[in-house]
Recover the amino acids of this structure.
């Protein structure tokens, strides 16, 4: 055990593969930002459907949320990668293929859009009707009210919840290695196969992810608190 | 007095389902005059005000702003076609509204609240909007608070900012919906003072209020609403001094105790 | 729809076995998470010398991706501790670890939400601190956080798909096996996804019903 520990603390291994590993981590970030963009846009659209006055829209929005919020990330990634191209192919009568990266972004983006839709909806519904009336009384168009009065407040209100969801999304990016997106976990398993030393490599990966999430999420939380305090004193 | 009133309300009715909140209300507000609306809660005062700038759509009747009807044309089979929202928005610009709950936008500074509509609705240049906003804030005696967020203001200050926000649209008339009702008693005076100054400057105003002193001293006409109808109407001396309606007399004696 | 019959309905035995393994893994992990979470929470709140250790563990479990933890437990722990010795055990240990971190924080919030007056009422009728904890604080806390606990179970179910990666024969693995036999993924994977979504939906709906019931019965706010 002590030998194993010494082995684990030996930095030479990480130094040797530093470029591969860092590139892997960058891939996690890349998948994260792309999927987060998809999740925010689709989530906002679904939330606007859910607060719509017409029931068919509300129904579609609810279905979207219930499907994606209850779906495991992993099966969605697999489904989008292996099934969706076949279905699309049948639809347009042509061979369709998604790159692993595209599948990962679509799958994670849609899964997390379900969570973001709920957060957006709660935020939208927490805004007093009077704020909207005040805008209308000044003659503002509904789109101006949405972009200038509703959404800026929604963003501030949903921030703490959204940070948690961003953390979950970042953590979920580690599973994209399973469809061969070359992220950190993928590189770690590749190096492990070469070196046959899972202990330092997987421990290193765990510590790295922990450090990144802990530090980044912590500082984002701190910043967002300071920003929110200006308004909700 | 000029021929076309600033606001003319004709036989306005509003139902919420089976509930008749307004049962045919008609009155004129002439330019530069102040009309106070009094009455028990539930008498339809606030709904009437909200129907005037179409935050509520009236069930029947018409509101004219400077002679222009707010509702759409009536079709051959007697149904009213609503005007497009862009039309209503254009007419709303001319009616400033002050709410009981202030409804300041908490994510914008005081000056941000005041310039928002001039920028986005009137499409003013930022510089001009800020100059205008500073002028409006001076009228409500809050020049020094421009960079604060609403959360840092007292209720009375928030309501004065809300007045400045409405003034910044340079409206033809101002609608006040119980502007002091959610304020602590010691904060109502600063708001009423500002409103008296506006009235003295010749601002056209409709004020829904429970402040009988304001209705008596500052307004040109007083309407007493009961059950969605105008029960008593006249100059303040008459309504307060010699009300014809028994209900109005009861209401006033309770209020003026 | 013969494809559905051939690929899904006729394979229902396998899928069913897989679902049973999924439920088994999740149930054990859930039990571990509740016990572990309560332990971590109590140590964090009341055992001063071990507090930093508890905080470090909670934060580590919470801020590390489940997939990474699974790999870590599966490949590293046997070398470090000589345990777990099966993939199945590694699967539930990893799932349980992550959730115990989350539940520890949920429990703490629940305990802190118990009004001080309720404890004082217990002391004032002569209960010992242990009795107050057992009879008043913990039951009250469990009531308020019950919906969050149910929610945590849905998280475990969703994460459990990953144990197929270390060859635990759960629903996900059985589905992937079927895909690899015929190379016809559409029906099998769609059905599997639907089963997972339906299962998680049922559990979370039950959780919401539980929350509503408690709000009505005890006038509590959902935690």
């Amino acid at each position: 055990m002590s030998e194993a520990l010494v082995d684990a603390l030996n930095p030479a291994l990480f130094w040797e593969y530093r470029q591969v590993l860092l590139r892997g981590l960058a891939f996690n970030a890349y998948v994260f930002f792309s999927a987060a963009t998809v999740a925010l846009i689709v989530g906002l659209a679904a939330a606007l459907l859910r607060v719509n006055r017409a029931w068919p829209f509300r129904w579609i929005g609810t279905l979207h949320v219930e499907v994606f919020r209850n779906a495991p990330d992993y099966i969605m990634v697999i489904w989008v990668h292996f099934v969706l191209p076949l279905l699309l192919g049948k639809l347009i009568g042509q061979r369709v293929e998604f790159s692993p990266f595209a599948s990962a972004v679509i799958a994670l983006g849609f899964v997390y859009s379900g969570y973001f839709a709920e957060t957006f909806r709660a935020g939208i519904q927490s805004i007093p009707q009077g704020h909207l009336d005040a805008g209308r009384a000044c003659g503002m168009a509904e789109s101006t009210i949405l972009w200038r009065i509703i959404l800026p407040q929604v963003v501030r209100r949903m921030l703490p919840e959204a940070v948690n969801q961003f953390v979950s999304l970042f953590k979920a990016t580690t599973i994209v290695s399973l469809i061969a997106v070359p992220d950190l976990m993928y590189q770690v398993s590749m190096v492990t196969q070469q070196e046959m030393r899972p202990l330092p490599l997987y421990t290193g990966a765990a510590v790295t992810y922990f450090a990144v999430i802990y530090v980044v999420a912590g500082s984002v939380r701190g910043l967002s608190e300071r920003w929110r305090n200006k308004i909700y004193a | 007095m000029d021929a076309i009133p600033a606001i003319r309300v004709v036989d306005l009715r509003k139902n919420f389902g089976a509930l008749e909140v307004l049962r045919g209300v008609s009155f004129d507000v002439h330019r530069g005059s102040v009309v106070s609306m009094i009455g028990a809660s539930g008498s339809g005062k606030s709904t009437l005000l909200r129907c005037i700038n179409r935050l509520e759509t009236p069930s029947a009747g018409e509101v004219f702003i400077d002679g222009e009807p707010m509702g759409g044309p009536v079709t051959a089979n007697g149904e009213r076609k609503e005007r497009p929202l862009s039309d209503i928005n254009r007419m709303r610009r001319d009616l400033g509204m002050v709410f009981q709950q202030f409804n300041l936008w908490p994510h914008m500074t005081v000056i941000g609240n005041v310039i928002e509509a001039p920028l986005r609705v009137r499409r003013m240049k930022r510089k001009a909007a800020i100059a205008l906003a500073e002028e409006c804030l001076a009228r409500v005696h809050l020049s020094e608070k421009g960079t604060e967020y609403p959360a840092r203001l007292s209720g009375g200050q928030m309501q004065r900012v809300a007045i400045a926000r409405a003034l910044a649209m340079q409206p033809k008339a101002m609608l006040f919906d119980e502007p002091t009702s959610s304020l602590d008693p010691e904060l109502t005076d600063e708001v009423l003072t500002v409103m008296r100054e506006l009235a003295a400057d010749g601002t056209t105003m409709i004020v829904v209020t429970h402040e009988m002193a304001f209705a008596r001293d500052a307004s040109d006409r007083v309407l007493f609403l009961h059950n969605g109808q105008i029960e008593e109407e006249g100059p303040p001396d008459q309504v307060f001094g010699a009300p014809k309606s028994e209900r109005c007399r009861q209401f006033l004696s309770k209020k003026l105790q | 729809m013969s494809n559905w019959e051939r690929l899904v309905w006729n394979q229902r035995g396998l899928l069913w076995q897989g679902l049973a393994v999924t439920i088994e893994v999740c149930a054990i992990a859930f039990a571990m998470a509740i016990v572990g979470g309560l332990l971590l929470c109590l140590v964090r709140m009341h055992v001063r010398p071990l507090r930093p250790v508890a905080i470090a563990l909670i934060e580590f479990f919470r801020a590390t991706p489940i997939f990474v933890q699974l790999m870590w437990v599966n490949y590293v722990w046997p070398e470090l501790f000589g345990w777990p010795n099966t993939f199945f055990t590694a699967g539930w240990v990893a799932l349980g670890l992550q959730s115990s971190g989350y539940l520890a924080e949920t429990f703490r919030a629940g305990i802190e939400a118990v009004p001080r007056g309720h404890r004082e009422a217990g002391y004032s009728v002569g209960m010992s601190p242990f009795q107050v904890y057992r009879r008043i604080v913990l039951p009250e806390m469990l009531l308020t956080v019950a919906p969050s606990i149910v929610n945590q179970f849905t998280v475990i179910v969703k994460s459990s798909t990953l144990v197929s990666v270390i060859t635990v024969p759960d629903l996900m693995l059985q589905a992937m096996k079927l895909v690899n036999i015929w190379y016809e993924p559409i029906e099998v994977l769609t059905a599997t996804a639907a089963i997972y979504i339906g299962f998680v939906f049922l559990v979370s709906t039950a959780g919401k019903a539980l929350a509503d019931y408690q709000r009505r019965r005890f006038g509590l706010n959902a935690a």
Remarks:
- The mean pLDDT of chain B is 90.
- Chain B touches chain A at residues 50, 53, 55, 85-86, 89-93, 95-97, 99, 101, 103-107, 116-117, 120-121, 149, 151-152, 162, 165-166, 169, 175 (CB under 8 Å).
